[in-house]
Amino acid sequence: MLNIQVTTTQTPAPKPDPQKELGFGCSFTDHMFLMDYTRGQGWHDARIVPFANLSLSPATMVFHYAQAMFEGMKAYRAPDGRTLLFRPYMNAKRLKETCGRLCIPEIPEEDFVEAVSALVRLEQGWVPERAGCSLYIRPFVIATDSVLGVAASKTYLFCIILSPSGAYYKSGLNPVSIWIEEGYVRAVRGGIGNTKAGGNYACSLAAQERAHDAGCAQVLWLDGVERRYIEEVGAMNIFFLLNNRLVTPSLDCGSILAGVTRDSVLKLCREWGIPAEERRIAIDELVAGSRDGALTEAFGTGTAAVISPVGEMRYRGQSLKVGDGGIGPLSRRLYDGLTDIQFGRVPDTRGWTLAV
Question: Residue 92: left if φ>0, alpha if ψ -120 to 50, beta else—which one?
């Protein structure tokens, strides 16, 4: 159990106007969680302090060798006033696995959940009550040695910051167009595509700009070897309803992130009796499905957007329509089902929420 020292701010910031749009990740709460790691001592000095800038040497290793990772999760305001986390132990497990891959000392899952819970509990007044809004939680770890040598750092900083946020996409649940990228790749087998490493997002930016220039909201990534099989969409997992079967790329390639929302969608669909498969999906299958009507829905899944329906895909100069281009009934059902659980509007029969 962590011994968290708490120092509260003497100058609390004004909370966002509940009548105005929040945006995503634009404002931050009064406090943050910090904990240090020193080789030979382990993780130590867990503390909650006023939100402030970090002071780091220009030689700090994270700036040069990108030994850094992050997580993303949310806290929700239930109708009865409780503050709920959604499946936080899945985030804790994924953070631990990402740290292991990047040679960052692992943070015990219980310590991670305790740290998140303590900070959110202190900042409960920042959890929005407005429909569809939540408190976004951003835990991250960075290497902090000030040495210009390529090696694993001996010291690290674990930090958690909070941001009251609205919808990730301004279009809300309206279907988006996505760009199927054939030039750049996001990840390769044996790399770090299955981790929450910042480098995965940096390498996606060039293709994302290309997609935006074409009027698309996101990039649909193909595998890094054959450029044939579907992987992720933007920073989300992707699902397709083909011939009345829900399919999503399998994780065994090692280049796709195991999303918490992805896992939740699969579990809900299997509970509802909807066939759900994890397998390789070739781009040719989607092209054919768009033409013959077998592809009736597509949507991305992730913490920020929850469910992001896809109405059109752009590929080699073609416009591939998904269904009728609107929000499909399964996309809507999944969005409503997940958000009802997350916001505590229905009983949690699966043990997915944690009240803080």
Answer: alpha
